[in-house]
Amino acid sequence: MAKILIFRHAQTAYNRDGIFCGKIDADITEEGIKEAEGVREKLKNEKITKAYTSNQLRAMHTMEIVLQGHVPKVKIVKDARLRERDYGDLTGKKKKELEKQFPKEYPLWHRSYDVPPPNGESIKMVSERVDNFLDEVVIPNIKPDDVILFCCSSNSMRPLMRRFGHLTTEEMCTVEHIRGDVHEYQYP
Questions:
Q1: Contacts for 102-111 with beta carbons within 8 Å, 24 or more apart?
Q2: pTM for this structure?
Q3: Which architecture characterizes domain 2-187 according to CATH?
């Protein structure tokens, strides 16, 4: 059976400050570098065979740190379908302020499956593109002895965890992703 290891990109200034980052191409902070080094330490004995990440700087930088010193060296496959959700008009705004300003709409925009924020993507839309990536690139190429890493943002992790962890749609939408945690699954 293949081993699937999924983790969230390390801290950005947007995460630290409670701001919707979404499609903004932010890098990780000094604290984020430490978080990534912690994930690297957790995975130091894994024989990684494949590594997938979004093409956003925060995820790529995290994955590069996690894979430093790994032997054999693994090519990192970057794909836009693993990008964070586009928060549309919420991008760059403080979450707590939006929650106060839009008490009815905010919970739907933030975590409902099929209601997107204004001019943004719903979790359903993110799921469709991540599922497309899995079906086209990942699943057909999994070998029984693979150890596969995924580093991406919180919302693109959701469909990965649903697929490999057999979560319901509701569980997928409500699970919290703690930076530094590594979620492990077996496939098939």
A1: 111/173, 111/174
A2: 0.97
A3: 3-Layer(aba) Sandwich (3.40)
Note if 110 is an active site residue: no
Which DSSP symbol is given to 81? G
Write down the catalytic residue from 61, 84, 121, 183: 84
Domain ranges of the chain: 2-187
| Angstrom distance (rounded) from CA 129 to CA 77 | 16
Q: Which 8-state DSSP code applies to residue 186?
A: E
Helix or strand (DSSP H, E) at 33: helix 30-42
pLDDT tens across 141-166, in order? Answer: 999 999 999 999 999 999 999 999 99
Contact 149, 52 (CB under 8 A): yes
Nearest to 134 by CA among 112, 157, 111: 157
Check if 9 is active-site: yes
For residue 24, the SS3 value is coil
CA 144/CA 135 separation, integer angstroms: 17
Element (H, E) at 52: strand 50-53
